[in-house]
Amino acid sequence: MEQRTPRIVVLGAGFGGLTFCQSFKHPGAEILLVDRQNHHLFQPLLYQVATAGLSAPEIAQPIRAIFHDRPEIQVRLGTVEDIHTATREVIVDGKPERYDYLVFALGGRTSYFGHPEWAEFAPGLKSLEDAHRIRREVLDAFERAENTDDEAERRRLMTLVVIGGGPTGVELAGALIELSRQVLRRDFRRIDPTQSRVILIEGSPRLLAQFPEELSQNARETLEKMGVEVRTETRVKDLQRGKVLLPDGTVIEAENILWAAGVSASALTAKLGAPLDRAGRVLVKPDLSLPDHPEVFVIGDACSIVDCDGQIVPGVSPAAIQEAKHVSRIILDELEGHPARPPFDYWDKGSMATIGRSAAVAKMGPIQFTGFLAWIAWLVVHLLFLVGFRNKVAVLWQWFYSYLTYRRGARILIRKV
Ligand SMILES: Cc1cc2nc3c(=O)[nH]c(=O)nc-3n(C[C@H](O)[C@H](O)[C@H](O)COP(=O)(O)OP(=O)(O)OC[C@H]3O[C@@H](n4cnc5c(N)ncnc54)[C@H](O)[C@@H]3O)c2cc1C
């Protein structure tokens, strides 16, 4: 009987999908890689695009360019709409695509804790579109503040609120205060950008809750020294256009409100017919496959797994990368006739968050460090993982330039005229 070429469909070219395709090399298999964007996005540096430090092409890479020398990989720009595990098909822009193996790596999305209407007033940060919206609205608010004669309106335009004190919220708050206090400082004539307020709101008792307590404390002190107003144990009661309402009755009036408080998995996880956790992530088997479909794997931010050492695997890029390599190994072994499926084992290499110029916190195994050393470690790790040599050189140059001059290059406002 004639053997059919196995077809592997990979959904998503984020950290998980991209790494799978990079590690999966088999002469007898074809791969279809689907993404609704034509680029792989390096999300850890997205906040720098949102705050005018970097521009989009420096943190994104066209997917076709990444795989130009891999003829067995077909790239499809399209939106995944549905998945039929019973017939082994996915629907991309209305068209069915057959698979023998499916790697689901569609990542997550911003979650507003049951308040989807808040998205209109407080953009999240997940895509280049989000980053451009934030950058445009923040820079635009300073321009409008320069042009108004109304003092209260000027204060409102120069107030920025960041909701969520995890790594993204901390990074955003630090970058925004630096933008106003250092970068825009001398550029206006009627307003003083150093008088702007950046308020960081976190519901739990401390920032960076997943880091050790001393590092959380260090992050808070550093941000406060830089001028950020940090409010922990403060849950947002309601959001309206330009207004944050707190449970004690306080209303913060701010032109820019940014949401960095929650993520949930891609809504398409519900199409897999498998059990999900509260954040919509698929509860996968130890080998990362679906309970009733060994040919379907879920990796990255879309899955929920406790590894063989009993640790909950976090929703971070190293986890997506390691999971992708694990699934690649399993499928390669099966195609070679070795069907053993070892459980996934996560290697936690540590975590870090940057706070601002020369300031970061880092934890690697038992070692914790802060300040300049942690910041250098953060820069090196992010440069190493950034995809594409050109991007590494461009980002290094931008960082060097900003460090020396206190200027940010990506401040061009593109407005409809
Ligand atoms: C602002 C921000 C900062 C972060 N900082 C860090 C950090 O410093 N360190 C760290 O380790 N992690 C960080 N993370 C988390 C990290 O980016 C994720 O854990 C990682 O991207 C997960 O990889 P993934 O492959 O599961 O999903 P993603 O990388 O999100 O990729 C999902 C892909 O699926 C595509 N897609 C989604 N839906 C569809 C659809 N319906 N049809 C077609 N394509 C679709 C998307 O376009 C995307 O390319 C950060 C995340 C964000 C948002």
Q: What is the secondary structure topology, with strand pairs?
A:
Elements: E1 7-11, H1 15-23, E2 30-35, E3 39-41, H2 46-50, H3 56-59, E4 60-62, H4 63-66, E5 73-77, E6 80-84, E7 89-92, E8 95-98, E9 101-104, E10 108-110, H5 128-147, H6 151-157, E11 159-163, H7 167-183, E12 197-201, H8 213-226, E13 229-231, E14 238-240, E15 243-245, E16 251-253, E17 256-259, E18 263-265, E19 282-283, E20 289-290, E21 293-298, E22 303-304, H9 317-335, E23 351-356, E24 359-364, E25 367-370, H10 371-385, H11 389-405
Parallel strand pairs: 1-2, 1-9, 2-5, 9-21, 11-12, 11-17, 12-13, 19-22
Antiparallel strand pairs: 3-4, 6-7, 7-8, 10-18, 14-15, 15-16, 20-21, 23-24, 24-25
Bound molecules: flavin-adenine dinucleotide.
Describe what you observe in this structure:
The protein is of the alpha/beta class and 417 residues long. It is 31% helix and 24% strand. β20 (289-290) and β21 form a beta hairpin. The radius of gyration is 22 Å and the shape is globular. The N and C termini lie far apart (65 Å). The model has no long low-confidence stretch (mean pLDDT 94).
